[in-house]
Amino acid sequence: MSSSNTSPGRYSRTAIALHWLLGLALIGIFAVGLYMTGLPFSPQRLKLYNWHKWAGVSILALSLLRLLWRLTHRPPALPQAIADAMPRWQHWAHHGTHHVLYGLFFAVPLLGWAYSSAAGFPVVLFGVLPLPDFVSADKALAELIKPWHRLSAYAMAALVGLHVAAALKHQWIDCDGLLARMWPGRR
């Protein structure tokens, strides 16, 4: 094993941990977001909205950490045999999906924070640390931002689904072992 805790062609343990932690957090926050918006006004709905907000800020911090790791630790190259077997459009989709996902990792929580601030509802991290308003309270601005947060969250969910489908295609149809590069466990 090399000093970077990675085998040739595999991501580092840190990259794998950040990938799966962020992936599970995104699935969880999206599910809660869908559920909470369908609830009638109640203490439970307010509690879920507050949880959703601090989870969003946590995901924003995790996304920053993941981006910094990615910028300072070059990911392993796609194995040549897999790269050669992929049509050009799949290479484009592979890189494009990753770039757009990274953008959405930041856009979705920042839009949510901006919406909450514009609506006049502060973000209180973990219920104890009030964060500064992202924008000034402005009901008209809140109404403009709200659909962007929702639509960008749906776009991210769709891209996460596409990412998962592509990984499963490589695992079960192509049988090329690509998924093992990011799968947690022994090297």
Short description:
The protein is an all-alpha fold. It has five helices and two strands; from the N terminus they run ααααββα.
Structural commentary:
The protein has helices at 13-37, 43-72, 80-85, 88-118, 139-172; strands at 124-125, 129-130. With 187 residues, the chain is mainly alpha-helical. It has one domain: Fumarate Reductase Cytochrome B subunit (Up-down Bundle), CATH 1.20.950.20. A hairpin with a 3-residue loop joins strand 1 and strand 2. Helix 1 (13-37) crosses helix 5 (139-172), helix 2 (43-72) packs across helix 4 and helix 4 (88-118) packs antiparallel against helix 5. It is elongated.
Percent helix, as a range, is 55-70%
The H-and-E topology, N to C, reads as HHHHEEH
Tally the helices: what do you get? Answer: 5
According to DSSP, the number of beta strands is 2
Approximate shape: elongated
- Structural classification: mainly alpha
Q: What is the CA-atom radius of gyration, in angstroms?
A: 19 Å
Widest beta sheet: strand line-up: 1-2
Distance between the termini: 8 Å
**CATH topology (fold) name:** Fumarate Reductase Cytochrome B subunit
Main pleated sheet: 2 strands, antiparallel
Our count of domains comes out at 1
User: Class, according to the CATH hierarchy?
Assistant: Mainly Alpha
Content of β-strand: under 5%
List keywords for this structure.
5 helices, Fumarate Reductase Cytochrome B subunit, mainly alpha, disordered N terminus, single chain
Please write out the topology.
Layout: H1 13-37, H2 43-72, H3 80-85, H4 88-118, E1 124-125, E2 129-130, H5 139-172
Antiparallel strand pairs: 1-2
Helix pairs in contact: 1-2, 1-5, 2-4, 4-5
